[in-house]
Specification:
By secondary structure, the protein is mostly helical. The chain is about 55% helix and about 0% strand. The chain has two domains: about 110 residues; about 180 residues, Telomere resolvase (hpI Integrase, Chain A, Orthogonal Bundle).
């Protein structure tokens, strides 16, 4: 347990500093697992703590002082940030949701929370992509690979290449059974993404086949060279997924940003845009294409196909990767 005192003590027993107590409560809540989720909530909690300590904040350093009015004031501050163009709606809603989750973890109840972040902010978020994804330029991806190679992050470079050529998520690229995928690529000309998938979408009941062109085969070969001895995926045999994220993946974020790659998920969107163009002969809507006006059936077919390749099985989600139908 991360409790350092009584539950009714300062910060509900999680320590003297608000910035420290929140992450500790989250670690307790997720029982030491779900590393990426804990990290995301913790980062957003720190933004709330900075506001609390700011000139316009309440100055609190004890979660017992936080009430519903405090959260309403924070929502008003975020709403102002949105209006000034300093925050997007999705980021603001995520921050409020993380404050809800962290406070619940600290308190042990949900008595103090924002019931509806979207209503509190007065705006609905949109999941339709309006900005072209990073990583569409293959030369940019090559520069990222070279930079990671120079820093001896070959396994992270393998993730970048797998995400860009197959549309894998970060977790899927890390846990992919590379020998199996290579065999499928050679024998069938396509690969079935099954490891590390979300929502139980694995096994024969949820096939997710992706065409294995030369770029995919090259990415698989590159990844095989980066595999630690005795392993089938990018994790060493005695290495946990969380440890790999913390020790290898997170330290490379700054390098990605310097090379204008926002995150690994952008590579998945870049893959989707490329597939849309291959399937329709038109640029993706977010890149200025308008196939949906010329041939709506073809646009619908491409979206359905891409949704299956990305492991969503829902056409509406594809708009978050390639853009909507304006």
């Amino acid at each position: 347990m991360a409790l350092v005192g009584r539950r009714d003590g300062r910060n509900f027993g999680y320590g003297r500093q608000l910035s420290y107590a929140g992450p500790q409560a989250l670690k307790d809540l997720f029982a030491g697992g779900h590393f990426a989720t804990v990290r995301a909530h913790s980062d957003r909690w720190q933004a709330f703590v900075r506001w609390c300590r700011s000139e316009n904040g309440p100055g609190y350093n004890d979660a017992r002082q936080i009430d519903r009015q405090t959260l309403q004031d924070y929502a008003a501050y975020l709403r102002q940030q949105i209006q000034q163009g300093e925050l997007c709606i999705a980021t603001a809603q995520n921050r409020l949701s993380s404050v809800n989750r962290t406070l619940a973890a600290m308190r042990g109840d949900q008595d103090v929370r924002i019931a509806s972040p979207s209503q509190a902010l007065g705006q609905q978020r949109s999941s339709v992509r309006t900005r072209a994804p990073d990583g569409q330029d293959h030369q940019q991806v090559q520069r990222v690979l070279e930079a990671l190679g120079e820093q001896q992050y070959e396994r992270v470079a393998a993730i970048v290449l797998l995400a860009r050529t197959t549309g894998m998520r970060l977790r899927e690229a890390i846990l992919a059974n590379l020998p199996r995928l290579q065999r499928e690529a050679e024998h069938f000309g396509r690969i079935n993404i099954q490891d590390g998938t979300k929502g139980g979408r694995s096994g024969a009941s949820a096939p997710r086949w992706v065409i294995a062109n030369e770029a995919v085969k090259a990415a698989l070969q590159f990844a095989r060279h980066a595999v630690p001895t005795g392993s089938r995926n990018l994790l060493a045999r005695n290495e946990s997924y969380a440890a790999f994220l913390q020790q290898s993946v997170l330290p490379t974020r700054e390098t990605l940003h310097k090379l204008e790659l926002k995150c690994f998920h952008e590579l998945r969107a870049a893959y989707a845009c490329e597939r849309y163009e291959q399937l329709t002969g038109h640029a993706a809507p977010v890149n200025g294409g308008y196939c949906y006006r010329i041939d709506r059936d073809l646009d619908q077919y491409a979206r359905q196909h891409i949704s299956l390749e990305l492991g969503h099985n829902r056409i509406d989600v594809v708009s978050a990767y390639i853009g909507g139908r304006a």
